[in-house]
Amino acid sequence: MLITTACLFVGETSAQTRKHATTTAYPSYKGMIMAGYQGWFRGPERNFGHYGISNKFDENHCKIDAWPDVSEYEKTYETSFVHADGTKARVFSSTDKSTTDLHFKWMKEYDIDGVFMQRFFGSTKNRRDDAPENIVLKNAFHAASINNRAIAMMYDLSGLRGSGEDCSSVIEDWKYMVDQLKVTDQAGSKTYLHHNGKPVVAIWGIGFPDRPYNIRNIGLERLFDFLKNDPEYGGCAIMVGVPTFWRDLNSDCINDPYLHTLIKQADIVLPWTVQRFTPLLHNDMDRYRDLIIGDIAWCRQNNVDYVPSVTPGFSWHNLSKGEFPDDIKPVGSIPRQGGRFLWQQFSTAMIAGAEMIYVAMFDEVDEGTAIFKCSDNPPVSNVAKFIDMDGMPSDHYLWLTGEATKMMRKQKPLSLKMPKR
Fold first, then answer.
1. What is the reported pTM?
2. Which residues pair with 1 in a beta bridge?
3. Could you tell me the CA-to-CA distances from 100 to 143, 200, 313 in Å, in that order?
């Protein structure tokens, strides 16, 4: 009896030394719909990063396929593009605090639970407070607190080269996030997303065959152990982002059972299904449903929680001209169909048993997956091409996501038919 009491006391003391807030408005991912947030769009003051190449942003140097509706932004920047009426097209910058404040205001207005902030591997080596990506993070965590929106970190391993490079910089970056940016202990309302009472940290990019790194030798188990067990920075729930066909280790996934070893050490698995399903194939949602049912069954057997991903559509015509000059993609290759495709995924995932969902993405206009306000009147160009919103209002996908959230919370009946306003 005395030994048991001592063990409990030691465990409690260890937990008390951790630097995370002990309370949060979001103790569990279950019952929620979260989106991914890139925050990488820079205006002229940052050389149009991810809008275009270098300081050029014209029809020959354009990476985006959806044009943001900037009518509500406090600060915007003129481009060389013009709309059909001859007016200059403008863009926002993610580094402006007013931009982030507006995005989180929209989340609250449309009842969207919150976002995972993307943190690319290269950024883990750039821990200066004045780095643009860190400015975006600071603004986002402040806005999340003000608007009472859930927020969490997602480390994307894209950029990790392998050949002697490992995940050590992610460990050091998480320390920076906790110590300097106070991500798990915001000033004001505490809104960092937890799962089973633990702060969620997502590690995305495990098991994809097109990556230059081998998941067996980049220190993933050491990273997991640190996030789970470190006496100061640990105590976290780990979410892993994996390929669509992770369960069978085929198609878009490496054929290595070690991936399952890693997944079983995690708390949540997030399969990436963008570009894997389309409304252009008859009954493709049946295939999506069956995939989720099988995934959930595997996860239950292995004590791992499951979150499917959904997306409004996909288009990367302009980006592909630079990235794949011999394989330029068509505009709107996975069409949005006025929101029907997104709603089919929401409802199908819930019918299949999903208890939480990840939306790809909140603000990704370069791959045409953004759910935030995009324009149905994009610029006109003979070279750069853009998707439109099928005649829908610019806030249509924010509204749909909010409606799906109500369905996830069981505040409204589950329906396969897309709602109308």
1. 0.95
2. none
3. 7, 22, 24
